[in-house]
Amino acid sequence: MRIDQLLASQYSRKEMKQALAKGQILVDGQAARKLSQNVDTDLQVVTIQGQPAPASNHHYWLLHKPRGVVTANRDAQHATVFDSLASYDRTPDLYALGRLDRDTSGLLLLTDNGPLGYQLLHPDAHVRKTYQVVVNGPLHADLPVLFATGSIFEDGYQCRPAQLTILASSAKQSRALIELSEGKFHQVKKMFLAVGVKVISLSRTQFGPFQLDQSLPYGAYRGLSSQEKQILVHILEESR
Ligand code: URA
């Protein structure tokens, strides 16, 4: 939210301009540059003339998405990720940070903080994601080098470098971890198809610094702690 929008309920435009000119609007201790600057009181400490700015009221949920539900706000056939939330937590304008396929499980962040989501999903944010993958064939020892240099989809698209760790490989089934910063449609499945194997199980275990809690059952969710919200700020700062 812009600073002037945040302060509008308590300060006139003239008061805001004067406070800005005197360096009395602080964002995490730094003087704000302009009233149109975007801030987030969930993630940053915003003060005006030494007083805390009115708080915004965004929600942040970490969901262990089960297989079978779709990452969409509504679907005629299937349950959605939002159906996993209790009705009192299903606030308006919630959306998922990145899409997981219906047959993919794992960590999914849900929020109603639109600008934050937009920035985190921007390719320049380079948010790293880790997936546990099972494929229906062997994973050869030279694949980590190929993935690290950027594998190439069947249609010629060159992927960004990804880190592949082979956990077990056999002729019929292999397991691996893959860490990448891209989020193209069916990204992981296409990367493995490009090297001749099909993904038969996919689960996201990490999104940026957030790890899937071992204790969180499929379909369960929890709110982010204030410390975790601060971590989101750092990701955004690093991406600027
Ligand atoms: N890559 C995929 O192919 N599917 C997902 O759900 C996520 C990443």
From TrEMBL:
GO terms for molecular function: RNA binding; rRNA pseudouridine synthase activity. The keyword DNA-binding does not apply. Belongs to the pseudouridine synthase RsuA family. Residues 1-67 form the RNA-binding S4 domain. This is Pseudouridine synthase. Its EC number is 5.4.99.-. It comes from the Bacteria. Pfam families: PseudoU_synth_2, S4. SUPFAM superfamilies: Alpha-L RNA-binding motif (SSF55174), Pseudouridine synthase (SSF55120). Keywords: Isomerase, RNA-binding. NCBIfam families: pseudouridine synthase (TIGR00093). PROSITE patterns: PSI_RSU (PS01149), S4 (PS50889). GO terms for biological process: enzyme-directed rRNA pseudouridine synthesis. InterPro entries: PsdUridine_s_RsuA/RluB/E/F_cat (IPR042092), PsdUridine_synth_cat_dom_sf (IPR020103), PsdUridine_synth_RsuA/RluA (IPR006145), PsdUridine_synth_RsuA/RluB/E/F (IPR000748), PsdUridine_synth_RsuA/RluB_CS (IPR018496), RsuA_PseudoU_synthase (IPR050343), S4_RNA-bd (IPR002942), S4_RNA-bd_sf (IPR036986). It is an enzyme of class 5 (isomerase).
